[in-house]
Structures are given as C-alpha cells and as structure tokens.
Design a protein that fits this description.
The chain folds into two domains: 155 residues, HUPs (Rossmann fold), CATH 3.40.50.620; 127 residues, Elongation Factor Tu (Ef-tu), domain 3 (Beta Barrel), CATH 2.40.30. It has eleven helices and 14 strands. α5 runs parallel beside α6.
C-alpha cells in the first residue's frame, strides 16, 4: 500500500482511484462495507481511502481525553488487510479545516486525486464547519463525472455499528463484543519502554507500552496476544491501568508474555485484547500482588486455549 500525505503533486499512478472517504477510526465492519461498495462500483480502478491525521475531533477538541481506537500505523495496517492499495492520509490543520465543502470537492477530490468514484457512509460530512453534506457531494461528483456510492449503516441486533459504540464496549470491559463489531480483536500498538522493573523482581517481566492517544479501555487485567514486527505472535496477560499497588498515577499497558524472555525494549508491539479477566485493584503488598498475577496467568492461558468464550460475547469475570 502506498501512503500519501498531500493531495497536490501526486504521481499519475496515485490518481484515478475509487476513493472511500471517512475517518476510519477502528476500521470496523461498517468501514469494511464502504470499502466493498467502492471496489464493487469500479473494480477496474485501484482501491483508495482518504482520511485525516490527526482525527478532526482531536484537532478541534484537544482537551478531550484520548479516544482513538486506531492510531495511524494500526489504521493503515487494517486498511491494507482489507485490500486498500492507496491511502491518502491528509494533515488536518488550520488551513485544511477552512476549506469549504465545494473547495474540498474541487481542489482535493477532482483536481488533486482525480477520483474515478467516491464511496462514503450515510453520515459523512466535510468542509468548513461540516458544511458539506451528501447533497453537495452528489452534485459535485456528478458535475465532475465521478460516481458516488452512499452506504447505509451496517447494523446488528443492538443497532448500527459505529466507532462510538465500540469505544463504549471497550470502556465497559467487553473486548469480545467489540471484536465482533471490528471483525478482529481490538489492538493497541506502541513502542516498548522502560518501566520500573518491579515485574521482573517478582518473576513476571512485563513489556510496558504507554497508551498515548489510544482510548483507555476498562482498567484491569486481560488475556492478550502480542504481535512483534516480524509477525511472531505470543500469548500473554496484561494489565491496563495506573497500578495502584505501587502508587502509579499514569495509565499504561503492562504485558507479560508467556514463554518469552527476549529483550523487547524499543520494539513496536501490537497487543490484541481478547478477554477481560478482572478489574484493576490495589493489593496490600507485593506477595498478594504476585499471588494474584499467578492466578491471572492461569486464567489467561485457559481462555486463550479455548476459542468458545470469544463467540458468546460475555467476558469471564473473576472479580
């Protein structure tokens, strides 16, 4: 997949694609439907996505708590897995935010990308103060000889699938249900950084990843798998939270990988959350903490060995 950060001066090979429009946070089943519609409309053209970095919400409301399901690297990997060949990841800044809806269509979609076809969800809005709507997009697409596919929301028995709904499930401690809407386990990708090394002293070394701009899921312990850059996947158990037993004040992810003792510092890991095991809690001392970690590791091994819990949508809770 080729990634471009400007719509101006593109090579000819990066023009004339069928372009799916949106933020694509999470790259969930609804987003996959938009991609399928884009490809079906023009199977002869390359499949592309136009999205933004940072997320417009983060630009306009920087005071909001972190909310992203996927940061740029994980989003790109998820889109590539769905067949996207070109990613236009445009910088969302002050100048871009002031483009009118008509300017966005003319300057970006028509002159910049020379899009052959457009696809978007039914709630797509664009341009200065979200002034551009589907009526404008349809009119501009027709005037520029671009096709347009508007994809209705994908829904299940609980309602439309959306990034907002997936965020709520993760914050409530239901990664299995979130995975059903994503089409894969929720992942947190980040660089392994040095921690306080307490885990190693009690026999459970951990790979520490700061959450950064990621949404913080429910604080507690999870059964996980970790994927290294080379593709190796290792099972494990992880805690997400502030570590109250040691007086922590900043949330992080601490993953203990089973049967792995290599040096991970500086490496980028992708941590897939499979099952929520228990809520975060404060222990009286390190002996109590170590005893609980032993139980957590046993619980994680059990649920990761049995695929059935991932299908019923009810996470095992031991607390």
């Amino acid at each position: 997949m080729k990634i471009f950060h400007d719509w101006r001066g593109l090579p000819e090979a990066a023009m004339g694609a069928t372009v799916a429009l949106g933020n694509f946070d999470g790259v969930h089943l609804g987003h996959a439907a938009v991609l399928r519609a884009a490809h079906a409309a023009r199977p002869d053209a390359k499949l592309a996505v136009l999205t933004f970095e940072p997320h417009p919400r983060a630009f306009f409301r920087p005071q909001d708590p972190p909310f992203r399901l996927t940061l740029a690297a994980e989003r790109a990997a998820s889109l590539m897995a769905l067949g996207v060949e070109i990613l236009y990841e445009l910088p969302f800044n002050e100048a871009f935010s002031h483009l009118s809806g008509a300017q966005f269509c003319a300057d970006v979609l028509k002159d910049g990308l020379r899009a052959a076809h457009l696809a978007c969800g039914a709630d797509f809005a664009f341009g200065y103060r979200r002034s551009g709507d589907l009526t404008l997009l349809a009119a501009e697409a027709e005037a520029s000889a671009m096709g347009l596919s508007v994809v209705p929301p994908v829904a299940d028995a609980q309602g439309p699938i959306s990034s907002t709904r997936i965020r709520r499930l993760l914050q409530d401690g239901y990664p299995e249900r979130a995975a059903m809407l994503l089409g894969r386990p929720h992942a947190i990708r980040g660089e392994v950084v040095h921690g306080d090394a307490r885990g190693r002293t009690i026999g459970f070394p951990t790979a520490n990843i700061m959450l950064g701009a990621h949404l913080e899921p429910a604080r507690g312990v999870y059964a996980i798998t970790a994927r290294r850059p080379g593709g190796e996947v290792v099972k494990g158990v992880a805690n997400i939270g502030q570590r109250p037993t040691v007086g922590g004040t900043q949330s992080r992810l601490e993953a203990h990988l089973f049967e792995y003792d290599g040096d991970l510092y500086g490496q980028e890991l992708t941590i897939n959350l499979h099952h929520f095991l228990r809520a975060e809690q404060k222990f009286a001392d390190f002996d109590a903490l170590k005893a609980q970690i032993v139980q957590d590791a046993v619980a994680a091994r059990l649920v990761l060995a049995d695929p059935a819990p991932a299908l019923d949508g009810t996470p095992p809770r031991t607390a």
